[in-house]
Design a protein that fits this description.
The chain has two domains: 60 residues; 32 residues, no CATH class. It is 35% helix and 9% strand. α1 links the parallel β1 and β2. α1 runs parallel beside α2. The longest helix has 10 residues.
Length: 100
């Protein structure tokens, strides 16, 4: 196994700038999650990643922001009680966007 340098975006205050600098420095992995940066981390990373196809993402599934919980209730994925409780989402196909 070889170690790779990576960037973690948890509590990162300047995600696009940090990601661009890390990628320019040879980072091959960026760690993020749907709930980082109040639910905006992945959106903030998108433009940086679009120009750096060598960088890969490690993300988590199951956590969500209040806004995501509201959207999940509207979509029928969570009940109101589940969204209010902030429960972790089950990792089954009905709760994950798979792109397929």
């Amino acid at each position: 196994m070889t170690a790779d340098l990576a960037l973690g975006t948890y509590r990162c205050r300047a995600i696009p700038e940090a990601a661009a600098r890390a990628a320019a420095s040879g980072v091959r992995w960026i760690d993020t999650a749907p709930n980082y940066a109040t639910g905006q981390a992945q959106t903030l990373l998108a433009p940086v990643l679009a120009t750096r196809p060598h960088v890969r993402i490690a993300t988590k599934a199951g956590f969500f922001t209040a806004a995501t919980g509201t959207d999940a209730v509207k979509a029928g994925v969570l009940t109101e009680d589940q969204a209010v409780a902030g429960l972790k989402l089950p990792l089954d196909r009905g709760h994950l966007e798979t792109g397929t």
